[in-house]
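Before the break, one more example. Copy the sequence into your notebook; we will annotate it together after we see the structure.
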Amino acid sequence: MVLSHRHSDHVGGFSFLQSVNPKVKIYAPKENFGVFGSDLPSTFYRKDDSLPAEMRYYGGTPPETMKFGTAFPGANIQLIDKTTEVTPGITLIALISDAPGTKELKELSLAINTPDGIVLVVACAHPGIEAIVAEAAKINPHVHLIAGGFHLVVAPDPVIQKVASALHDAYKVDYVAPGHCTGEPTFAALQKAFGDRYLYAGLGTTLGVGANPRAERDPRVSNILGEGDLRSYRTLLAQSDDFKDRGSEAVRLAQVQ
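Here is what the structure looks like once it is written out:
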């Protein structure tokens, strides 16, 4: 299992999974004092030998590595702080956001090197979808499919067009399956750029990732989220890091019925 980043809408189902499979191996981004736990060398802080032992951290004799707790006690979590191949053909890309509102947020993306090229699964792409694709292309320059959130929900048109052009023309991505925080104008721009190689992957979609990917929905499922759930989700979204610097947009989201 891979936990991409600390935002609640990306770890909300973890407690249930852990209850079903308590020993499942989990990869998560390493952040200082993060919700997934962390560790630091004790050399990171200055020391003063003139203080009595009872006034010093660890009584003046700190361990070489200081370990910090997790919001998920007992979980089998391995923290990732750099791009790492966790098993042959499967690599976790670790990057850091530099965007306002999520600056210094660490996020993992999943790159699977298949016979058809890289299948890249992104969560929110806070570090920038182009930066993530550039890292994936180092593994294999043929990027077959990108699926997930592109984090362009409030981006202006020039930024959106730049991303669409980069994915289609520079990286020559075969297919895109955007969802989540990609944004409606970006859905439209990517659909125009990729044509029948654009797959919309909204909530409840099953995505096939072979040579000719397809997105399918269960016809029996009409409304995954009820109106009450939608109102709660929009309220939480308006309070998230992504909207800290966008007051009017956050208010509008919170008021949507």
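The longest strand covers residues 106-114. The mean pLDDT is 88. Try to locate both features in your own notes.
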